[in-house]
Every structure is written in C-alpha cells, then in structure tokens.
Amino acid sequence: MTERLQRPPHRLGRGRHNQWYADRARVDISREPPPYRPVHLSAAPQHLTLDPARTSLVIIDMQNDFCAAGGWLDHIGVDFSAARRPIEPLNRLLPVARQHDIKVIWVNWGNRPDQANLPPGVIHVYNGDGQSVGLGDPLPGKGTPVLQKDSWAAAIVDELDTRPDDIFVDKYRMSGFWDTPLDSILRNLRTDTVLFAGVNADQCVLASLIDAACLGYDCIMLEDCAATTSPEFCWQATVYNVRQCFGFTALGEDLVTALDQRELP
C-alpha cells in the first residue's frame, strides 16, 4: 500500500471539494470527495435523493426593482406583492442550507452603465416604446438607474439574509447563464444539483433552469421559494414544464425538514 503523504499547507481554490495543496516543493492535486450523506426529499414527478455537498441554491432576481416599493415594477403599475412571497421561505431555508454545505448563489440583473453588451431586444423588454423608463434610466422619485450594477434598483432586497461568503453573479438576459460566469462557478464548486428560487418563475427562473438542464445539471425548482407577477396560468405552465421536461419541483419547507433530520457535516 502506498503511504499517504501529508498534504502541503497552502490551499489553492475556492471550492471546498476542489482544492490543490501546495508548498515550494510539491503540489497535491488530489481531491478528497465529501462524505456521502444523502437527503431524501419529497418532490414531483418523483421523490428525490440528493447530496447536499454537490448542490447549489441559485436565487434569481430578488432585487428592489422587482420586489420593493419604489422599484421598476412598482413604477410601471405592476402589483409586486407576489414577487415578495419567496422572502420568508428563503430566509427559513438559507441558514439551514448553509449549515449543510449547500452553496448559495445570488444571480441578479446588474447591467453595465454603458449597456455595451445589451442588444435592442433586451432593452425593448423594459422600454417598449423607446420613451418610457427602462434599463439604466433613473427611476422617478428615486433617481437610481433601473437594474444597473451597484444601484439601489439592482440590489437584493434588505429583508433577505445574504452573507459575505455567498456568491454573487450579475446577469444581462433572462437566463443567468448567458454572458456570465455562472456555469464556470457551478463546475468549480463541483455542483451536480441546482435548486432554483426567485422571480419571475416563468421568465428568468425558468430560462435559467432550462439552460442548466441543457448543460447537464440536475434541476429542482423550489415552488414556495419562487413566484411570479404573471397571470396564474403562467405559473401553472411553468410547474408543468419543469416537471415534464427539465427536472423536478419541491418545497423549500420540505428541504428544511429533511436537512434538519440529517447529521451536520
């Protein structure tokens, strides 16, 4: 049997299970897999067993322009109360998920001030006649530019429990994968399973989930941690299509219960 050398002292890499260990003389590029402690979760169309250590929670667009008074949706007269429904379920899930080694990734609209990477079709979604308040325009009464990186409008709502060691990704399309490092981050974290949450379920959440499924990730939409301001039939079609074509749906509440019954890593 080959004797196991002690690892060099210096770690290289953000991913907990994807690190090298180095000193001046040697680099240990072997990875130690996480211990297998599966979780059994009620889901549809079938129940699931998943490995939290290979799972990331991706939360999409829970930001002021969509979920807060004075934001862009509020300005254009949309009842944004539905977009706030995931806040409490997410705040119950987040601390438990972090305890059990599920990575937390926030994916939000955060456009460049010069909008150099935005085609007209994306700009049109927010400013259909070319003379309304759209991407980058100052919100009346607030003055903050709509969905612009580092603005109040693009910031995650204050009520949500973000942490400095969470991961934050700016996006510029309905999908969180186009023109962003999200796929690279998930692969570097050794993620197999992605839990999707946020708003709007039938738009940015679904577009991101479809891309994730096409990239080979296991996809689960957490129904109580996602919502939409669209009509009810849009929600029903989203749930149907996720279950039928792209993955599974489950409840964040059930995941909290399952994780609470599991030994901490």
Descriptive account of the structure:
The protein is α/β, with parallel strands linked by helices. It has a single domain, classed as Rossmann fold (3-Layer(aba) Sandwich), CATH 3.40.50.850. Helices cover 28% and strands 20% of the residues. It has eight helices and twelve strands. The chain has a seven-stranded mixed sheet with strand order 5-12-11-10-7-8-9, sandwiched between helices. Strands 1-2-3 form a three-stranded antiparallel sheet, with no helix packed on it. The mean pLDDT is 95.
Give a brief description:
A hairpin with a 4-residue loop joins strand 2 and strand 3. The chain has helices spanning 64-67, 72-75, 87-99, 120-126, 182-188, 201-214, 232-246, 252-260; strands at 10-12, 20-22, 27-28, 39-41, 43-44, 48-50, 55-60, 103-109, 167-171, 193-198, 218-226, 248-250.
